């Protein structure tokens, strides 16, 4: 019990990218599933409420674009972690 490491001590040497890719893949797949739900909600909103004010439509579009970019970057990160470089 006389461990001299602090709370934020060194990372366990057994944790490598090889044994954490499964967690990254599961998280990415759940993110894609949630993004599909967001896409369906945006589509339903646009179809059901065509007479909403422009600032509400702008806000929904802006947030959807932000979510799209976030998901794109998450997928790019997962691809780079899984397969390495782009070439």
Notes on the structure:
With 87 residues, the protein is an all-alpha fold. The protein has one domain. It contains two helices and no strands. The chain has helices at 21-48, 54-83. The longest helix is centred in the last third of the chain and has 30 residues, at 54-83.
Radius of gyration: 20 Å
- Portion of residues within helices: 55-70%
From the spread of the alpha carbons, the general shape counts as elongated
> In percent terms, what proportion of residues is strand?
under 5%
Distance between the termini: 48 Å
| Mean pLDDT, all residues | 83
* Main sheet specs: none
Counted up, domains total 1
Order of helices and strands: HH
- Low-confidence parts lasting 5 or more residues at pLDDT below 50? none
Structural class: mainly alpha
| Number of beta strands | 0
- Helix segment count? 2
């Amino acid at each position: 019990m006389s461990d001299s490491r602090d709370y934020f001590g060194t990372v366990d040497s057994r944790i490598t990218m090889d044994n954490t890719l499964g967690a990254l893949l599961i998280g990415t797949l759940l993110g894609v599933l949630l993004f599909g739900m967001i896409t369906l909600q945006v589509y339903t909103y646009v179809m059901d409420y065509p007479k909403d004010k422009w600032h509400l439509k702008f806000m929904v579009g802006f947030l959807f674009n932000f979510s799209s970019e976030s998901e794109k970057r998450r997928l790019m990160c997962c691809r780079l972690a899984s397969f390495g470089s782009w070439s």
